[in-house]
Amino acid sequence: MRLLGHLIADYLWGLVGFIIIFYFITARPDGSFHLIWNLPNLYLTTSYIFAYPALMAWVPGLRTGKLKTQSMASHSSAADLKYSQGNVTNPIANKYDLNFRNNLRDDRMNFSFLLLERTVLMALATPILILVAGIKGAQNF
């Protein structure tokens, strides 16, 4: 059951990037969508359907996002909360609201970076899967 959940989650994470890249490959210069099967479309579809879930199942460490950001605003607001108890930073909004807004902005940026990582990983899944299979085969040999 856990493997099925991971498989569905991997397909959903890769779907956004697949749709965007597939549209850019198949769209005409005027922006209209015209489906023509060519080598890049076939590669991308094969990578999304077969290689990407196999790579995620084989190397589960790739599921976690590697790019984490923390803005200077959230860093300073966290320091302000930690070191100064009675200091008022902004007379309009209290320091807890400012800290919440900064953390929310950081979470959105981290989500965007995770989506970008998954899109690039989905697009390059076939060569990465071949590389991982070669490395694992060489270790077992």
TrEMBL record:
<keyword id="KW-1133">Transmembrane helix</keyword>
<protein>
    <recommendedName>
        <fullName>Integral membrane protein</fullName>
    </recommendedName>
</protein>
<feature type="transmembrane region" description="Helical">
    <location>
        <begin position="45"/>
        <end position="62"/>
    </location>
</feature>
<keyword id="KW-0812">Transmembrane</keyword>
<feature type="transmembrane region" description="Helical">
    <location>
        <begin position="7"/>
        <end position="25"/>
    </location>
</feature>
<keyword id="KW-0472">Membrane</keyword>
<feature type="transmembrane region" description="Helical">
    <location>
        <begin position="111"/>
        <end position="135"/>
    </location>
</feature>
